[in-house]
């Protein structure tokens, strides 16, 4: 093992959450009579928290009060339906079990709202994840290093000994801001070309390839 601890992004890295996110976005949009979005559109909107997600999903020029109402509606729908279509990517459970067998602490750092990140990790990964930190009050969301630093503290690790694994340009910036190396994966919400343009130095296309880089 090259690292003493691994931090993972959640959406697009460990879990395929796109279907449930798109459904909740469209439920909120429909309630306000707005045009619905395709899954590919929602894929391009995610990565910077749900506030940005909804701001990007509503029609251009939508007033702030309506955006806030859509966000509130999204929160309600997603809280009820966030684990309908969501599932781990193929091979992820085996990877996490292997890391546990090797005694390597694992954490999740996400821009998903904290209660949802914790609930989904608990439902899909149980005790394979040692710490989960999502978007919460008092911590700046990624790409600021705050949530990474909180996870490292919870796991008793230092940035110098760990690697961050994610699927987006936000994750590359997050790792850099936290003083950690980054391994990118291209099976999630961003293409290999997008990741290369964002400065990715290591890109894995399969879980087996990722495992060999840990």
Could you give a quick summary of the protein structure above?
With 214 residues, this protein is α/β, with parallel strands linked by helices. The chain contains ten helices and eight strands.
Describe this structure in words.
It is a single chain. The radius of gyration is 17 Å and the shape is globular. The longest helix has 18 residues, at 64-81. Helices cover 47% and strands 15% of the residues. The strands form two sheets. It has a six-stranded parallel beta sheet with strand order 5-4-1-6-7-8, with helices on both faces. A two-stranded antiparallel sheet has the order 2-3. The mean pLDDT is 97. The protein has two domains: 5-16 and 86-212, 3-Layer(aba) Sandwich (Rossmann fold), CATH 3.40.50; 18-81, Orthogonal Bundle (DNA polymerase, domain 1). The chain has helices spanning 18-31, 39-45, 50-57, 64-81, 92-101, 114-125, 146-155, 169-178, 192-197, 207-212, and strands spanning 5-8, 15-16, 87-88, 106-113, 131-135, 162-166, 182-185, 203-204. It has 214 residues and is α/β, with parallel strands linked by helices. Helix 9 links the parallel strand 7 (182-185) and strand 8 (203-204). The termini are close together.
Ends distance: 6 Å
Mean pLDDT: 97
Order of helices and strands: EEHHHHEHEHEHEHEHEH
- Point out poorly predicted stretches: none
CATH architecture of the largest domain: 3-Layer(aba) Sandwich
The overall strand count is: 8
Shape: globular
Oligomer: single chain
